[in-house]
Amino acid sequence: MRMAAISEPHPFYERLFMHVSFAWVILLSTPSNLNVQSLSTPNGWARIVDLTFLINPEWLTTARVILLVALGFYITRIFLWLALPVILLVNVSINAAANSQGAIRHAAQIVSLVLLAQTAACYYEWWLRWKGVPAKETLEERQVSWSQQAIAATYFVAGLTKLIATDGAWVFQARYIGVQIFKTAYQTYYNDLNPDGLEGQLAIAQFVAAHGTVVALLCGLGLALELLAPLMLLGRRWGLLLGSTFVVFHFLIANLMQLSFIFHRLLVLIYIVSPIYWIGWASRTARSLFARRGEIPPPTSP
Predict the structure, then answer these.
(1) Is residue 281 part of a domain?
(2) Residue 154 and residue 158: Cα distance in Å, rounded?
(3) Is the pTM of this model over 0.90?
(4) Residue 200 lies inside a defined structural domain of this protein
């Protein structure tokens, strides 16, 4: 997984922010209850391993407790070689059980992918030590780098798939996306019979249906953004620019189609944009400016 990536070292406070934030995202993305009677349509990991025991609330609670303990180890960086595969196993297993009802939710898949990347980075470190090969970067930096690459790859592959699946005609077919908005609006309504927001969603669908060319243009811009995702790995400023654009893009999609992609937004903020770094940068810059005027002492290096 050696690619161009945001290579500037990450200070301790930034890495701590990433560890705590990602642990929180993992917890959010792992269902706390499964209101099902059986796994009627096994999906993913559930095709290989019988996960029906997770339907039992006691077993599910036990799995969540194990997850919490492992997340504690992850944050404190203790026994990572054990904590990461346990977190990955629990996260994938519970989500696989939730997706084994005939309808697949894709929202949490990016979380599992980043978990897989960090687990692979951990064991790659072990392999380097076993081979006696000096590492070119620390485990912490490798995990951040591989996580960033996994996120960028998720977007790039999504854009590439759109082109391959439609023989390059996706932008022109996107003008019919109003139909999908109609379906999503009524699906949301029939899930809980709550009419709040239904009228607004139908109005958006009608607008989209009436302005196909504008919609195709916007979708084309979204596709271009996905294909440009690898540029987020070129440096901090590229990450800030494209990462922030992705967050805004997801916000618009969430309001148009009720597809929040909340975990995509959070992971882009945590690993690509990294607001805690820019807050620190702004603070150091301000202190340096004031120091030149003799008002406060210059900042020390982090």
Answers:
(1) yes
(2) 6
(3) no
(4) no
Helix and strand element counts for the chain (H, E): 12, 0
Q: Write the burial class of residue 194 (CB in 10 Å: 0-12 exposed, 13-18 middle, 19+ buried).
A: exposed
CA distance 227 to 220: 11
Residue 261 lies in domain: 16-168+228-292
Helix 139-165 and helix 12-29, axial crossing angle in degrees, nearest 10: 50
Cα–Cα distance between 264 and 259 in angstroms, integer?
Answer: 11
Give the tens place of pLDDT for each residue, 210-242. Answer: 767 777 787 888 899 999 999 999 999 999 999
Residue type, 49: V
**Total of domains in the chain:** 1
Q: What is the mean pLDDT of residues 155-170?
A: 90
- Cβ-Cβ contacts under 8 Å for 283 (sequence gap 6 or more): 299
Phi–psi pair at 46, nearest 5 degrees: -70, -15
Can you tell me which residue has the tokens 């590492």? 135
| 125-129, Cβ contacts within 8 angstroms, sequence gap of 24 or more | 126/81
Q: Is residue 212 part of a domain?
A: no
29-40, pLDDT tens digit by residue? 999 888 777 788
Structure tokens at 118: 């960090």
Residue type at 186 in one-letter notation: Y
**What's 135's DSSP letter?**
P
Domain membership of residue 263 (yes or no) is: yes
